[in-house]
Each structure stands twice: as structure tokens, then as C-alpha cells.
Amino acid sequence: MRRGLVLEGGAMRGLWSAGVTDVMMEHGVEPDGLIGVSAGAAFGCNYKSRQIGRAIRYNTRFAKDARYSGIRSLLRSGNYFNAEFGYHVVPYEYDVFDTQTFEQNPMRFTVVCTDVLTGQAVYHDIDHVDYEELEWLRASASMPLASKVVKVQGHQLLDGGVSDSIPLEYYERQGFNRNVVILTQPKGFVKEPNKLMPVMRIALRKYPKMLKAMDERHVMYNHELDYVAEAERQGRCLVIRPDGKIPIGHISHNPDEMRHVYEMGRTIGERYIEQIKEFYKS
Questions:
Q1: Cα separation of 257 and 249, whole Å?
Q2: Residues with Cβ < 8 Å from 172, sequence gap 6 or more?
Q3: What are phi and psi of 164, to 5 degrees?
Q4: Residue 190 in contact with residue 217, Cβ under 8 Å?
Q5: Are 185 and 239 in contact (CB under 8 A)?
Q6: Residue 73's pLDDT band (boundaries 50, 70, 90)?
Q7: Residue 233: CB partners within 8 Å, gap ≥ 6?
Q8: Which of 60-64, 76-80, 143-147, 209-213 has the lowest mean pLDDT?
Q9: Are 259 and 22 in contact (CB under 8 A)?
Q10: Vertex 129, ends 42 and 41: CA angle to 5°?
């Protein structure tokens, strides 16, 4: 049996997931692998480095810091979340990422990105930490319109959620047959077509296959929800989701709002922790 943890994205809704996963870490739950998409990757890396509370800590600390994110960063660099400061300064100077623990932990850690030239998902395992590997992490969480295309190791990448929002099927193909899936939308959620497609068609006009993937994302996402529901029915996965809509937008500069969402995730984590332990045992 190989135990997997699947984390979908959702931008700042990912702090809810961080609350759940911090509870899991506090209880010593150790999956064999973790696959994260977008915020699920950016915050999920702290699971492999075993740094409880790190995601909520640095997000609240820098919530109103112009060096970390904001319109000024977007206008100057093309990235709402400052690429250099957020991914290459904070982890080394302000809230140090435990690279040694990350690299020694045998847990497999996979991030999902979208290749803008093909519109297809790219899956990349990170087992060590350096500048390029952190760029893969950044690429997974680089939202269209709010980020420039990330060029790394011959790929041109953006948000993994465009091509594979809930990568349970992929992870099962990798041999993970006992998966906890953490979603950031409540039961019954149905994704609608993207209302920003007219703007996307202008901003990403150089990438027609990426535009096609974005235009069809709601179809892909709803199909993946059906796949997860069937896997849950068959007992192959345990799904953890919020009770209702998470009260935070894609972008937030309000530390209190962030803490509230994080604590909501912790509450759900405490509710499910014994079930998670039993699921991974069976």
C-alpha cells in the first residue's frame, strides 16, 4: 500500500488546506507521497520539510509588505506575487525553509504545472532545493494574468490548476492507491466557465493551446470531481473539504482573514484526524 496526499489549489484558500495538513503533521501522519497543485504545492512543500505553521506564518507576516505582493510588483515585474522576494529571499532570510529535512524526508513530492505551449500538465518531482527547483514551485502557483510565464529547464509554465486541478487519477497511476484528497471547495460545487476569457485571449494570445485549456477548464475540473466522487465511493480515497465556501478571495492582504481561514482548516483537520489515521492503516 502506498499512501498519497493530494492537494488542490485555490490561491489563498490554500491556507485552509494548510490548517488541515498542519494538524496531520502534529499527529505524526506521514504519507508516502504528496502531490500539490498551485497553492497546494506552494504550501504543501512544508509537509515534506515538516515545518508546522510556516505557511500561515509568512503569509500573515508579509500580507501588507509591498516587497511580497501587490499592484506595484505586478506593474514592475509582471508578477503580483514578487517572484524573487517570495521564492528566493523569504525562504533563505526571513522564514527559513528547512532544506535539510526536506531532502532527507523520503516522502515523494510532486508539483503540477501547465505548459503554455501545449496546454498540457507537466508533473515534476522535487527531491532537493535549489534555485531551479523553487522555480518549479513558483510556476505551479503562477496564476494567469497575475504572473508572467515561468521559464525553467526548457519549459514555459503557468498554474498547474489549468490542466490538472485535482491530480488523483495521475497519482493513482503512479502507484499511490490509498489517497487523502484535500479539496478547497464545498460538496456540491460545480465550476462554471471562466468569465475572464475575453481578457485571457488578449493577454495570452501567443499561447492558443493554453487558451484552449483555460476555456475548457471547467469541463476538466467537473470531470475530476466526478472521478474523485467515484474513488471515494469505492473506498480508494478519503475526501476532506470545507463545510461551505471558504471566506477569502484569490488574493488577500488581511492577516486576520488569513488566520480565520487557517483556523477553519485546523478545525476540520481535528474533526478528521482519527479517520485519516484509520484510512491510511487499512
A1: 10
A2: 179, 231, 236
A3: -155, 85
A4: no
A5: no
A6: confident
A7: none
A8: 76-80
A9: no
A10: 15
Alpha-carbon distance 110 to 4, whole Å?
11
Q: What is the model's pLDDT at position 263?
A: 98
pLDDT score of 282 more than 80: no
The DSSP secondary structure of 179-192, one letter per residue, reads: EEEE-SS-TT--PP
Backbone CA torsion sign across 84, 79, 108, 19: positive
Widest distance between CA atoms in the chain? 52
**Residue 169: its H or E element:** helix 168-173
- Residue 79: predicted pLDDT: 86
**pLDDT value at residue 38:** 97
Scan for cell 488578449, then name that residue: 202
DSSP string, 128-140: S-SHHHHHHHHHH
Q: What is the DSSP letter of 3?
A: E
Percent of the chain with pLDDT over 90: 92
For range 120-144, the mean pLDDT? 97
Residue 71 has pLDDT above 90, yes or no: no
267 sits in which H/E element: helix 255-281
- Rounded Cα distance between 73 and 15, Å, is 22
CA-nearest of 90, 93, 95 to 69 is 90
DSSP state of 148: P
Confidence at residue 75, expressed as pLDDT on a 0 to 100 scale: 78
pLDDT value of position 279:
98
> pLDDT band at residue 213, thresholds of 50, 70 and 90?
very high
- Are 24 and 275 a contacting pair, CB within 8 Å? no
- Cell numbers of 42, please? 506552494
* C-alpha–C-alpha distance, residues 142 and 156, integer Å: 11
Are 69 and 251 within 8 A, CB to CB? Answer: yes
